[in-house]
Amino acid sequence: MPLFRADILHSPERGRIERIPDALVSVDDTGMITSVVPCGTDAPPRDTNDLRGQGVLIPGLVDLHIHAPQFPQLGMALDVPLEDWLLKYTFPLEARYSDLDFATEVYGAMVRRLLAGGTTTAVYFATIHPASSLRLAEICVEQGQRALVGRVAMDDPASCPDYYRDADAKAAIQDTADFITAVRAIPNNTLVEATVTPRFIPACSDEALAGLGKLAAEMGAPIQTHCSESDWEHQFVQTRCGMSDTFALDSFGLLTRRTVLAHAGFIDDEDMDLIRERGAGIAHCPLSNTFFANAAFPLRRALEKSVRVGLGTDISGGPSAFLLDNARAAVATSRMLETGTDPYKEQSTRGVPESRIEFRDAFWLATMGGADVLDLPVGQFAGGRQFDAVLVDLPEIDLVPFSDDDLLQAIIMRATPADLKATWVAGRCVSGDHQRSDRRFPTLISDYSQRLL
Ligand code: GUN
Ligand code: FE
Known about the structure:
Number of strands: 16
Structural class: alpha/beta
Distance between the termini: 28 Å
Bound molecules: guanine, fe (iii) ion
Shape: globular
Largest sheet: 8 strands, mixed
CATH topology of the largest domain: TIM Barrel
CATH superfamily of the largest domain: Metal-dependent hydrolases
Number of domains: 2
Strand content: 15-25%
Number of helices: 15
Radius of gyration: 21 Å
CATH architecture of the largest domain: Alpha-Beta Barrel
């Protein structure tokens, strides 16, 4: 049974952090933590992975929203509105994934980079292409990243170009079903699950949306899509469906306990209530929202209404592949929403009072919040949870005295991928040079989820 001896820091509940400077964490052969105790005076066994003095161990990061095929244009084309960005840059790039070699090269490099950046669980949109979408799932299994992967459905000729579109609603549904079956058949797949993935309402016909909702129920599959992302997108759905994205998705059977909604910046109180009732979750993507959303997501309002929320990079709508860049952006944008931004307005009318979140909330969102949205037993160091972890070593941190809060705030605000020394998923070291605990573990994501439901 692998044993880790480390300085651990996590947030079991939002707003509360816990640090055990010298903890002994026992992990079983399935990657599950069996016990977490302060290291006593007895010497631990000789084969303990002793991480003391090498940094602090935090739970692995959960990125709820990534467009894997957009990785090559990370940081580019952020100066145009969403609807132009899709047609001019994004659809032409995504169309290239009909080339399996191109897909293999990009996806391999991307998963490696995300693991090095501490992303132990990733929720991916792939493209409309079944073969290269399956390749992404296989690469996650090979490299040991926990993931949800979706083959994208988009069939509406009114909004999708001829060169990058499902032939019709039937094809969109059938290809999705086949993809889910293929992912479930990947050998030794203990980590990756397939999702039903309508791109967003504007890209899909009513027939496809309804069929995909039915398919998700029949196959017991999770769902991911975009929701009320920008003024244009929100208005488009309002005009076409006569209701908000949230209510329209619900009418198609696409708002379930297993749905991840990206962005959701324009949801109102009624939308939030319905999302909470259905148990769906939100991928808050603050950096992407800065460029494409036209407004700041009312994060604190959603949290106070007990809507489940985690964080997403939205590669490449957001310019960073590093989730902690979004954790700090979540703090910053919540502060700007609270204070307002126009200095020529009276202070009392400038912002939305009580909108700010703190660094502790951002840490919780990046770990437990994401775990909760996915119903996955990750996100903290506790018995019954999977050992998904990242070793962080901030340079010069010990040149001043610091509290546990100081340490965490510094990690949230200033850590870079270079400060992450190693990453583990299910007890297996998947990035960095701590390969001693290298092993593979069998338990399907869907098994975990079903156990928790
Ligand atoms: N809405 C539909 N497709 C996309 C996408 O690829 N990125 C973002 N940010 N929004 C979308
Ligand atoms: Fe997106």
